[in-house]
Amino acid sequence: MTHESHSIIGPSRGSRWLITCDHATNRVPDWVGGGSLGIAPEDMARHIAYDVGAAGLTRKLAERLDAPAILTDFSRLVIDPNRGEDDPTLLMRIYDGTVIPANRHAGPAERALRMERLYRPYHAAYEALAAARPDRAICAIHSFTRQLRGRPRRPWAVGVLYSHRDERLGKALVRECRDLGWITGDNEPYSGHLDGDSIDRHALAQGRPNVLIEVRNDLIADEPGQALWAERLGDVLEGFLDRCGL
């Protein structure tokens, strides 16, 4: 099931989990800058444009868990679906040292168009899937780069992110990942709470159990790595809600 803004996989699958991927692709629609943001292909292939490997991992993990999944089909640099509608970083003009020419002079009308055609349809579909069963739990899949320009290398293989407003799954998942010997970030490499982001909007606001998993992108850059981590994460997430008493 596809839409200009997103694709949905297995909407009728039986798992309580909904697997989501906010930054699945680096695609720029033809109606945005003629299909280009004006930056080099090598920059569009970097983490600044999408979460490298996250889409493949999402698809394989959803299949492993017999869970529905939703994935975006536009670059985070076009408009970032994992930001609130009033967040100043919703439309980035510079990211990790790269200026985004097509965004430098994007005014309110351009922003509104991207919101209407991409951002809002994705979130409407996301909410419909999340609401399809009353016991829904959300697992958001992201990836992170090993090193930002001018910053130290990040040591983690996996990061588990969660909000201080709902720690039911996050802390337990950190423990289970560490018990498996994975170097696991506890709300690293980012804080797990951002007002208006996807988890805030579709999980915290409704009291849905949730966790956000970040996998270092060099570990899932190819299909074998995605398959490996889908199996590893699937083994942990299968039965995890029951183990947490949820």
Structural summary, described in words:
The protein is α/β, with parallel strands linked by helices. The chain has a single domain, classed as Aminopeptidase. It is 31% helix and 16% strand. It is built from 8 helices and 9 strands. A hairpin with a 2-residue loop joins strand 4 and strand 5. Helix 2 crosses helix 7 (223-237). The longest helix is centred in the middle third of the chain and has 23 residues, at 108-130.
SSE diagram, text form:
Layout: E1 6-9, E2 17-21, H1 41-44, H2 54-65, E3 69-72, E4 94-95, E5 98-99, H3 101-104, H4 108-130, E6 137-144, E7 158-161, H5 170-179, E8 184-186, H6 198-202, E9 210-216, H7 223-237, H8 240-243
Shape, per Cα inertia axes: globular
Oligomer: single chain
The H/E string reads: EEHHEEEHHEEHEHEHH
CATH fold-level assignment? Aminopeptidase
Number of helices: 8
Q: Give the biggest beta sheet.
A: 7 strands, mixed
CATH architecture name: 3-Layer(aba) Sandwich
- Computed structural class: alpha/beta
Mean of the pLDDT scores? 96
The domain tally reads: 1
CATH superfamily: Zn-dependent exopeptidases
